[in-house]
Amino acid sequence: MIVDLHNHTVLCNHAQGTIDQYIEKAIKEGTKIFGFSEHAPMEFDPKYRLAFSQMQAYENSILHAQKKYKDKIEILLGYEVDYIEGYVDQRVLNAKVDYLIGSVHFIDKWGFDNPEFIGKYEDENIDEIWQKYFDAIEKMAQSGFFQIVGHFDLIKVFKFMPNTNILNIAQKALEAIKKADMTLEINMAGYRKPIAEAYPSRELLEAAFALDIPITFSSDAHEPHQVSLYNNEIVSLAKAVGYTKCATFKNKQRKMIEI
Ligand SMILES: [Zn+2]
Ligand SMILES: [Zn+2]
What we know:
binds zinc ion, 7-stranded parallel beta sheet, alpha/beta
């Protein structure tokens, strides 16, 4: 795929491979614009992310790669930021980056996408869990802090599905995304998880298309071999729904390019 904006590095403590290995895989796959978006530092759950003291080193190493590979591929610098009210940090929001991805990985501080805490799905009504998740996405969009919505329906990761209509549950979140002029990523990491499909689902992507919400693409790679692993699937999904363009960013300004 031409653009791939969501990828990690070893600095988050749960990924493998060197920056060069990720980039070389992207070049091999024909990607033209490849972005790193490391899990940004936060005073919560610090083990699974960059430390504040590592921000400069992370940014320098990506900018170094940008120069090194400039004749072969465009490298972008970003962060994936956890949206937890009260924890979004100014040092991250003010970082000089090409884009920020806003993601929800926690509901009331429960790491719902972590297999360690999967038991909690049995403790509460599944429809309420889904609604709380999309309420958090709505607030994330309303904050105005971010350019891209990370893995829009991540709550489906372990295939605990709601009993009510997903479009109804997600409607207000989609409207907030539209109002904030955010971009939705089509993220292939879902194929590596029990749900075995992209984030978002075709149904939600169609709803986004109806609202004219722009998309971009991402591997969400945590290992070099995951770069572009399901690129045919997600590009075909975008085209089947009707998308002909995808977004890229420079200094937080969006530019649309042909898929
Ligand atoms: Zn991660
Ligand atoms: Zn994520």
